[in-house]
Amino acid sequence: MTDISGELGAMSGDAGEVARAAELHTEPRTLIQSLGHRGLTLATAESLTAGGLSSRIAEVPGTSVALLGGVVAYSSAVKRNVLDVDAELLSDRGAVDPDVAAAMARGVAFCTGADIGIATTGVAGPEPHEGKDVGTVYLGLACRKSEAERLGLRLPDGCEPASAGLGPETAETWISGSLLLDLTGDRAEIRAASVEGALKLVEDFLLTEPHGIGIATRVETH
Fold first, then answer.
1. Which of 97, 120, 130, 184 is most buried when burial is the number of CB atoms within 10 A of its CB?
2. Does 3 fall in a domain?
3. Residue ranges of the alpha helices (H) in 125-166?
4. How far is CA 32 from CA 35, 60, 81, 133, 188, in A?
């Protein structure tokens, strides 16, 4: 059974159905416009999707108004050395972990200078990895706290706040968390669902903005 709602909340079930459902809800052009309208920039950190997410976003002409760049971090060494994911966290938990996903998102936002980072890590198959079943995917999301406060943004429903791998200064600078996707399907379907789910997560994050914030309004006085 596939579970997807207006906001992500949770996504589970057949990967092909999840990908199609998320794609119906999210269009990269609209996402880029939403980011540009709010003056926000985005960067991607990808493990199992290996560049598929940034490629999907870059289908939109003029994407550079919001997409600053991305890192394909297939190995733990790249996660550690490029994205600054805590070495002890990686050693203790492995790469397929909610706090690792959040750290990847923070790391790519920091190293590119973006306001928002979105990350994918998981097991696309065909075999389990590091004790995690095929279809276990974590999407990481991070945003500079100053920008989140400016726009009144918060982590969407179902996105669990990061609880490990961040020091006091990091916690003061970023809001970050992760969302679990529990998927079934083949490798291509799981990767496609991860890409579409990541787009949907960013969209849901932007939709946590209170009504009226970030939208030009005119106040008349009499």
1. 120
2. no
3. 145-151
4. 5, 8, 29, 33, 25
CA distance 73 to 46: 6
Instruction: Read off the tokens for 200.
Output: 């949907």
Q: Is residue 209 part of a domain?
A: no
Give a yes or no: residue 1 inside a domain.
no
Q: Is residue 142 part of a domain?
A: yes
The CATH number of residue 101's host domain is 3.90.950.20
- DSSP-derived letter for residue 97 is S
Q: Can you read off the two tokens belonging to residue 101?
A: 């996903």
Token duo for residue 136:
């276990």
* pLDDT tens, position by position, 153-208: 999 999 999 999 999 999 999 999 999 999 999 999 999 999 999 999 999 999 99
Q: How many domains does the chain have?
A: 1
Amino acid in position 193: A
Distance CA(162)–CA(175), nearest Å, equals: 8
Q: How far is CA 129 from the centre of its chain?
A: 21
Q: How many helices (H) and strands (E) in the chain?
A: 9, 7
